[in-house]
Design a protein that fits this description.
Layout lengths: L1 H20 L5 H21 L3 H25 L2 H5 L8 H20 L11 H7 L1 H12 L1 H22 L5 H16 L2 H19 L1
Helix pairs in contact: 1-2, 2-3, 7-8, 9-10
Length: 207
């Protein structure tokens, strides 16, 4: 009885956090809601006696991937991102797509049959434990898929570092141009006029 109530509680919190994470405007609040969602998903894994998956959910998702999301939020210009146009032209289109996705998920859940599948029935899982069963499946039958996922994550990491690399601003370019002019002319007057022009241009742009 307690297990069923706890599962319903976790399912309710996961659903609410997922809806709020895609509905709120503040990205920091969205990340915190996703963090709460990850913790409740780990609790669901614990009720299924999958301790390894629960630990991975906390260590990898809540401890690593979510921190990476925070770094991305701190690196991008949030005010500029919030002014981007909506993905769909009208809100009703987005609601229709969300309803279609939920319907597809419910249709898939209706055909779900609980219990062990394939070579891992429940009795074997209790004897071998989920950790050993998962490791055997990953490093035998699904080893190629595991390596492909690792390569994709590496590509995503390199792409994120490339996008987050700081681009030289207009002021830095102007200062570099003034230094080059000073080096060529060898006189302070030309460099001073270049720097003044840069400063005036920067002030005008800021105004």
């Amino acid at each position: 009885m307690f297990g069923e109530i706890f599962f319903l509680y976790c399912a309710f919190v996961i659903t609410v956090c997922g809806v709020l994470a895609i509905s709120l405007r503040n990205p920091i609040h969205c990340v915190l809601l996703v963090l709460l969602l990850f913790f409740h998903m780990a609790a669901v894994y614990l009720t299924l006696q999958a301790e390894f998956l629960a630990a991975i959910q906390i260590i990898v998702y809540a401890g690593a991937i979510l921190v990476m999301y925070l770094f991305v939020l701190f690196l991008v210009n949030l005010q500029q991102e919030l002014r981007l146009p909506a993905l769909t032209p009208k809100p009703i289109v987005g609601y229709a797509l969300a309803a279609a996705l939920c319907g597809g998920m419910l249709w898939g859940v209706a055909g779900f049959v609980p219990g062990g599948k394939g070579p891992w029935p429940l009795e074997t899982l209790r004897e071998v434990t989920h950790t050993k069963a998962l490791s055997r499946e990953l490093f035998t039958h699904h080893f190629l898929s595991l390596e492909i996922a690792g390569v994709l994550l590496l590509i995503a990491l390199v792409a994120a570092l490339t996008l987050a690399r700081k681009q030289p601003s207009a002021v830095e370019d102007c200062v570099a141009g003034a230094a080059a002019t000073e080096a060529k002319a060898g006189e302070g007057g030309h460099a001073g006029s270049s720097q003044c022009a840069c400063g005036n241009k920067d002030q005008g742009g800021a105004a």
